[in-house]
Structure formats: structure tokens, C-alpha cells
Amino acid sequence: MWFKKLLRKFDIMAECRRYDLGFWQCPNSLFIVMGFLIIIAMLITYWIGIHFVEPEVVIAIVSVVTIILLVIGHSLVGSFARIAEANRMKTEFVSIVSHQLRTPLSALKWSLNLLLGNRLGELNEKQEEYLNIINNSGSKMIKLVNDLLNVSRIDQKRLNVQPEQFSIEKAIEEIVKELSSLAKAHNVKIVFKDSKNLPEVCADSDKIKMVIQNLIDNAIKYSKKEGGTVEVSADRDRENKKMIRIRVKDNGVGIPSMVQKRIFGKFFRGENLVKQKVEGTGLGLFIAKGIINLSGGKIGFRSREGEGSTFWFTLPISKKAKNKKQ
Amino acid sequence: MSKKILFVEDEPSLQKAMKEVLVQEGFDILTADNGEEGIVQAKENKPDLILLDLILPKKDGFTVLEELKKGEDTKDIPVIVLTNLEGTGDVEKALSLGATTYLVKANYELDDILKTVKEQIK
Q: Are A292 and A211 in contact (CB under 8 A)?
């Protein structure tokens, strides 16, 4: 069993296909060739060492072999660079396509704004219903494009955060209000435990709102069908007094331990979730992690399958806000 | 007298939709399809507000903004940047060149943009 696993690790053809590289550019095949060369070189050196004793000959052979190994090593590095370059190009491609998509999507949105705002004449009920369907689909596409742009920015390490001082409690209240209709539709209750008089935090408020919205949104979507509750709270962090800790707790399906490691990855969706058909791109938590890391905070979760999950993150307290209080 | 708004935008469908809503709200609207024309229009007609895209043929929006802010007779016209460009530094660059607001087209409803226009034109 373990032998098969080991063999699979060296499946060179699969690797070539995956990275779209030729056999001689594949890191694994180059490593294997290098290993064989070293073994052969040792055997030859050993044989020569026994039969001819002059050290010059041994050194000459070792030198030649070293040069060959250097050349192979060089192309190894080159193949890694090629893989990195391919990855960079993919990220750039996603970024360009997303930007391009925004123009037609804006035209769609504005035209629908005119129609649904009754600026082009009264609509009948059916027309309004269907235009609303188009509008919702359009909004989802815009959301996806924005998510993809954020992912490519995080990949390129070009995500921009503009820290400012703001009240995290107000931000949460705002989002809870916004999501109340979604919660109602899912039969879920949202409770915000306001701990009052928290100092203001220093972070990019728009992006942090995006993170909170995403966490609450997930909690609602993955909550129990009956009697689901989402609990949101903000407190001073117990471990680090200079931070505020925000928690979003649900009593929903929970995250299987098998997939817990991958949850902050790109396009992640829990396996049981595919069957349940939950909406979303699977990019939210990847973006959330990127934003929180850039804001100087930490993000994590605790979860047990069947019992629910608690997602949390921390944000630095604004230095100015602290001075004001003292 | 109704207020004049100049919309510099190369995408005809966006021009049309914006024109529709602004005319309905009682504004006079002028349009320009490229950067160069935008500057000419701004100088000739002295609008009360300019809505400016950044990706434009002939002269890009940043250059247009820079030239408008240098021009004696155009430097006081408020400029709202209305674009889908949102790269690193784009927002900061536009604001430092003198734009009053930066809005991403795909993320704003027409009514939100209208609200910002009314706030700026007072």
C-alpha cells in the first residue's frame, strides 16, 4: 500500500500533464536522473579508486560529474520558475478578464436600474418579476467578478487595505440588519451580543465589513433547518489586550474534521455541502483570511460535525482611540 | 437654469443609460467619447460637474483629470471618477490628482450615483 503511494508521488507523466511541461523539464524526472547520476558516479569513482590510485584521476571525475549535476540543477530551477510564471500568468489572466467583464455587467445593471426604477414606463407584475430575476443574476455575477478580482489581488500580493478608525459594533449592527431578510428566509435567528463601549479598531472598514458579512452569511446558509441561531459577539481579546475579537457562532451542520485543513483554501466547499447545494463561490474564506492577515489580525475557527462552528478573527485596537479613553 | 453635467465615457450603452436618468432628473447632459473630446467640451461648455471614466481612447482619464485641474477655467469643476478600474493605487492616484469621489461602476446602482451627483452639484 505505502509502496503504491510512494510510486504515485513519482508519477512523472501525470506531473508533466498537470504543469504542462515536457519530460525533461519536469522537476521529478530531473531529480531522478540526478540521483542515478550520483549513484553511477560513486560506483565509477569507487572502481577507479581500487584500480588506479592517483588522486588526480578521482578528482577529475568528481569535477566532471559535479559540472553535469550543476547543469541539471540549473534546469531544475528553471522548471520551477516556469511553473511560477505560469501561475502568475493565470492570476493576471483572471484579473484582466474580471475587469473586462465589469463593463458589460455595469451596462446590464444600469439598464435594469432604469427599468425597475419605472423610469422607462410602468411595468406589469410579470415583467417586474422576471426583471428582478435578471437583476439578481446580474448582482451575483458582479459579486463573483469582485471575488475573483480580490483573489487575484491576494495572489499577486497587491490587495490594498486603507486602515481607518471605526466602530466594529456599528459595523456589525449594520450587517446584521442587512442580512435579516436572508436569515428570515432560512428560518434563522441572528443575535448580536453587544458588549458596549469597545474601543474603535483600526482597519479597512469596507473590507472588514465584507469579512463579517461573509462569516454571517455562511453561518446562516449552513445552519440547521429548524431553530437555527447565529450568535455574533465582539469583545476584547483575552490573550492580547490590544486586539478585539469578533466571533460568529452557529449551531448548524459543522465542518467535518477531514476537510478542516482546507477550509481557508481557494474554491473550498465542504463535501456534504455540494449535496445540500449551498450558494456561493467558495472564495469567501480565502478572501477573508487574506484581508485579516493584511489588517494585522488572526482568523480561525472551531467546529465539530453536527454541532456547529465558531469562526473568529481579531483586529488591532486603534491607538488613537485608546489614548482618548485614558 | 438647469445644471450642466459632462459625462466622459466610451461605452455607448453606459452613456445612454446615464443620459436617460440625468435628463429625467432635469440636468443638461453633454457627452464625450474620448479623453481629448472631454477636455475640449469641458473648456467650451464649462459644465457644473464632470463624470469621468479612466480607461478612455486618445487620452486616459488620469491625464484628462490632470489637465482639467491645471486649466484656469476648469480647475474648480468637481470631477467624479466613474470607472471599473480598481487596481492598486488607482483610487489614491485619482484622488490626489483632484477627483472629488471615486465610484466603481459595477458596484453602484444608478440611484446611488445620482445621489452623489446631487450632493456634489449643490
A: yes
CA-based nearest residue to A251, from A265, A276, A230 = A230
Which residues lie across from B102 on neighbouring strands? Answer: B81
One DSSP character per residue, B60-82 reads -HHHHHHHHHHSTTTTTS-EEEE
DSSP B1: -
Residue A19 confidence class, pLDDT cut points 50, 70, 90? low
Q: Hey, which CATH number is domain B4-121, 3.10.310.10, 3.90.550.10, 3.40.50.2300, 3.40.50.620?
A: 3.40.50.2300
Nearest to A307 by CA among A247, A223, A245, A191: A223
> A269 vs A10, which has greater pLDDT?
A10
Q: Print the domain residue range for A14.
A: 1-158
pLDDT tens digits, A36-86: 888 888 888 888 778 876 778 778 888 888 888 888 888 888 878 888 888
Residue A287's nearest CA partner among A143, A94, A151 is: A151
CB of A250 closer than 8 Å to CB of A307: no
pTM of the model: 0.73
A113, A120, A158: residue with CB nearest B110: A113
Distances (CA, A) of A266 to A142, A283, A285, B107: 18, 6, 8, 23
> Under an 8 A CB cutoff, do B84 and A158 touch?
no
- pLDDT, mean of residues B62-88: 87
Of the partner residues B11, B18, B84, the one whose CB lies closest to the CB of residue A99: B84
Instruction: Answer yes or no: is pLDDT of B7 > 90.
Output: yes
